[in-house]
Each structure stands twice: as structure tokens, then as C-alpha cells.
Write a structure and sequence with these properties.
Blueprint: E1 5-11, H1 15-26, E2 31-34, E3 46-49, E4 52-55, E5 61-62, H2 66-73, E6 80-82, E7 88-90, E8 95-97, H3 102-107, H4 113-128, H5 139-146, H6 150-164, H7 174-184, E9 188-191, H8 196-208, E10 212-214, E11 219-225, E12 228-233, E13 238-246, H9 250-257, H10 264-271, E14 275-284, E15 294-297, E16 302-306, E17 320-327, H11 336-350, E18 358-370, H12 376-384, E19 398-400, H13 411-428
Parallel strand pairs: 1-2, 1-13, 2-10, 7-15, 13-19
Antiparallel strand pairs: 3-4, 5-9, 6-9, 7-8, 11-12, 12-13, 14-17, 14-18, 15-16, 16-17
The structure holds flavin-adenine dinucleotide (FAD).
């Protein structure tokens, strides 16, 4: 590894890094992919616990997303089940059916007649709206201009959280939400045996194409400029490379590269707002209430889904993998233990007595769903910029990718697409 001069050294073997590695290696580049963890996948990894497979929180693959399209181009075909969206909409004191069709909305006891009318009208309009026309507004500004009813607004916010995983209406661009919502109308998949199957398939493709994939290698420093960059590892090993592609959060890459506060990376590090959530994942040996497979809370940022209703995730067919999620606002201080208690009480309502059926639980108190929110400020800046934010112009040879990159996609789609686009850019150079 240290005796060779690599064309591209990629830092991080999450979806962005793996995608870039496959694209570059297939095009004949000498690629080194470095991952600090002992396994591939980053936030798209899957844990195996007592015969069940648990993604790191609830993971759904967008059926019409650019991520899946790219995976297929690279020869990775996820084995997955399509989710049928039906379930409950909970308020503090009542459970309603989720109004997923116009008919259900009309029958719903959750909304006033006026709210039903304005929701029906807005949801029809969103489907056809050009996202660019509202990208200069925050979700809150756009929503408060279009909807008057309290529960109508709350429902729109719940749908926005569901499709973007972000609970930041005062920051996120309405354009990004509309685009994501439109895409989610195409449906989502839950992947059989977990997302690790897609990750591992990408890893196999990268290795087959000639990339050197090294886990357990943490990068501690990036130095130099094209074509003489050096990547230093925690054990002191120095790697020579013509280009570096970092898929880490910009703040972290800035620290590794010793970027000045007023440099491209320094500025980007300050602009990028990560979004966190609290994930409670529970495997039960039997469902106390087999009818409850999906629910959102209208007034609280809570999500619940039985992923094994759609995907094969357990060795024992009686067992079920339940994902609960709390979408945390970037502003709130929140305590991890309080969030766990909230999610457990939410589950009490959906699966009463679940504690008696527990096989295993895992709580991730604060996990980043995205390393960077598409805020209005960043979306507008990205439209106006002469160069994409992934090109570090003042440090030639250093490039960036990851789910924080502002473009047409969010979340895993953004990670995969950014990895592909950066690889294509490097190949053009
Ligand atoms: C709870 C939750 C639910 C989600 N649900 C969905 C969903 O339903 N749909 C969807 O599309 N997306 C979802 N996502 C988002 C999706 O998982 C991420 O967007 C995607 O996996 C990010 O990929 P990435 O490559 O950008 O980053 P990461 O996966 O974070 O990869 C970065 C990699 O870099 C490694 N690394 C860090 N520092 C170093 C270092 N110094 N040296 C070497 N390696 C290093 C890390 O270990 C990691 O493996 C969800 C995320 C979470 C957390």
C-alpha cells in the first residue's frame, strides 16, 4: 500500500466511497479505498443480532431514486420488497388511519372539513410543482403561506419528515422537500437481509475491478497538492496519491487537511448542518398487535415501522424487526434517555406488552441521517456557484463526496450520486 503511488485514494467506505471506487476502478484507475471501521458500509451497514438483521435505523430505498439507478448501472440489483404504505396516524389521545388516499383523507376524523380541502388541494399541486420555483423558501415559509389549519400543517410536516428524515422546517429548502416527496410517491423498498447486502455487492464489484479495499485503516492527515498528495494513517503509514476523494463530513475533512477557516473547506465546514435522529430498533419474537405495521405521530416527530412485514430480516419467521425513530431538530438540545423513553411509550401504544416479547434491542441515541441539510442558503449557493462544492479549488487534488452534497437527491441517493459524479469528474480530468 505504501510503496505504490495511487491515482485516487478514497477516504470512507460508505455508499459514496464504494460507488466512487467501483466507477474509478472499472475505468482503469489505481484506486485505494480506506475505511476506519472493520466493516464496509458506514451508515448503510447492517448488524446481525440473534438471527435478525438490523440496519442502522429504518432504511428505505427509493424506487425511482438516482441511487438505485446508479447501483443497477454498476451491476448491483438489490433484492427487496416493495412497501405498501398503510398504517396509523397517532395523536396524543387517538389513533387514526393514515390518510394515504383522497378517500381516506375525506373519511379521516383527524382533520376539519376546511383542512381536508386545503390538504387535498396542496397534495395534488405538490405532485406537479416544479421544485425550483420554491427552493428559495424554507419549508416553514412555504407551508405557512399555503396551509392554515393546524393539523393540516402538522400532517404536511410529518410527510416531509418521513420523506427527508429531517425535522428542520425553518432551515430546509422547500424545493428539496418537494422533490423528495415527489420521488417518494414512486414507492420505496425494504431490502431483504438488510442494506449490508448492497454494500457488500459494491465491495465485491470494487475489488473485482482492481480497487484495493482496506478496512481498519483510519486516516489522520491529508497533505500536499496534485499530483503529490500524502495521506497519513493512524499507525503513521504514509500513502502517496495523485488525488484524494474524501467522503467524510466537510468539517472532518477540513481538520484532516489543516484547512484555514477562510478556505473553501473552512467555509463549507461552517455552512453544512448535520441532521441527527434517535433510533430504537427492537426484535420481538411475536407481535402483540400484528395489525400495526406502520405509524407516524401527528404532533411529535416519531416514526414506527415493522420492516419484517415487507423484508426478510429474521431467521425465525415469527420474529419481527421494528424500527422506531425520532427525527431530532438541529436546534433542540434533547436528552438521549428522554428520547428513548418517548419512543418506548410510542411503541407501548402500537404493540402493547412488547417488552415481554423482546429478543434484542439496540438504541442509537444520536446518529446522523445526513451529514448536511439542503438549507435554502446552500441550495441557492450551489445554483450560483461556478464550481461544484465538491471541488476544493484552493487545495488542488482534493475532492469531496457524501450525502451532504447539495443536488437533486437526498440521503443515500445523494451519497451514491455524489460518488458517481465525482468519479466521472476525475476521469474527465
Ligand atoms: C437512522 C438512519 C436512517 C436512514 N434512512 C435512510 C433511508 O430510509 N433512505 C435513504 O436513502 N437514506 C437513509 N439514511 C441515510 C443513509 O444511510 C446515508 O445517507 C448514507 O449511508 C451515507 O453514506 P456516505 O457514504 O455519505 O457516508 P457514511 O456512510 O457515513 O460513510 C463514511 C465512511 O467514512 C468512514 N470514516 C470516517 N472517518 C474516517 C477516517 N478518518 N478514515 C477512514 N474512514 C473514515 C466511516 O467509518 C464511514 O464508513 C439513513 C441514515 C440513518 C442514520
Amino acid at each position: 500500500m505504501e510503496t505504490k503511488r495511487w491515482d485516487v485514494t478514497i477516504i470512507g467506505a460508505g455508499l459514496a466511497g464504494l460507488t466512487a471506487a467501483v466507477c474509478l476502478a472499472q475505468a482503469g484507475q489505481q484506486v485505494l479505498l480506506l475505511e476506519q471501521s472493520t466493516r464496509l458500509g458506514g451508515r448503510a451497514a447492517t448488524d446481525e443480532r440473534q438471527g435478525s438483521r438490523l440496519n442502522l435505523g429504518p432504511h428505505a430505498l427509493y424506487k425511482t431514486g438516482a441511487g438505485l439507478k446508479t447501483l443497477r448501472e454498476l451491476g448491483v440489483e438489490p433484492n427487496a420488497g416493495q412497501v405498501k404504505l398503510a398504517g396509523q396516524l397517532l395523536t396524543e389521545h387517538k389513533a387514526h388511519r393514515l390518510p394515504v388516499t383522497a378517500g381516506r383523507l375525506l373519511m379521516s376524523g383527524c382533520f376539519s372539513l376546511g383542512e381536508k380541502a386545503e390538504l387535498a388541494s396542496l397534495l395534488t399541486r405538490i405532485g406537479k410543482l416544479d421544485p425550483r420555483t420554491v427552493e428559495g423558501l424554507t419549508l416553514q415559509e412555504w407551508l405557512y403561506g399555503g396551509l392554515k389549519g393546524t393539523n393540516a400543517r402538522r400532517f404536511l410536516l410529518a410527510l416531509a419528515r418521513l420523506s427527508t428524515y429531517a425535522n428542520a422546517p425553518e432551515l430546509i429548502s422547500a424545493g428539496a422537500v418537494v422533490r423528495q416527496y415527489q420521488m417518494s410517491l414512486g414507492g420505496v423498498y425494504y431490502v431483504h437481509e438488510g442494506w449490508q447486502t448492497m454494500v457488500d455487492a459494491l465491495g465485491v464489484r470494487a475489488t473485482a475491478a482492481g480497487a484495493a479495499v482496506r478496512t481498519g485503516h483510519k486516516v489522520t492527515r491529508i497533505r500536499g497538492t496534485h499530483p503529490e498528495l500524502t495521506v497519513q494513517l493512524q499507525d503513521g503509514t504514509e500513502i502517496c496519491t495523485r488525488a484524494v476523494l474524501s467522503t467524510l463530513r466537510p468539517q472532518v475533512t477540513a481538520a484532516l487537511a489543516g484547512a484555514a477557516p477562510d478556505s473553501h473547506l473552512g467555509r463549507l465546514g461552517r455552512q453544512v448542518v448535520p441532521v441527527y435522529g434517535s433510533a430504537l430498533d427492537v426484535v420481538v419474537r411475536r407481535l402483540p398487535n400484528p395489525q400495526a405495521n406502520f405509524a407516524l405521530h401527528l404532533e411529535q416527530p416519531f416514526y414506527y415501522a415493522n420492516h419484517s412485514f415487507t423484508a426478510r430480516l429474521t431467521q425465525d419467521p415469527e420474529h419481527a424487526v421494528l424500527h422506531l425513530f425520532r427525527y431530532n431538530s438541529p436546534q433542540e438540545a434533547g436528552s438521549p434517555e428522554r428520547h428513548r423513553g418517548e419512543l418506548e411509550r410510542f411503541l407501548d401504544r402500537l404493540q402493547p406488552g412488547w417488552q415481554r416479547e423482546v429478543v434484542t434491542t439496540r438504541y442509537l441515541p444520536r446518529i446522523a441521517v445526513t451529514n448536511g441539510l439542503p438549507t435554502v442558503e446552500r441550495v441557492i449557493a450551489a445554483r450560483r456557484a461556478a464550481q461544484p462544492e465538491t471541488v476544493v479549488a484552493d487545495m488542488p487534488g482534493l475532492y469531496l463526496a457524501g450525502d451532504w452534497v447539495v443536488g437533486e437527491s437526498l440521503l443515500a441517493d445523494a451519497a451514491i450520486v455524489s460518488g458517481k459524479e465525482l468519479a466521472e469528474r476525475l476521469l474527465r480530468l
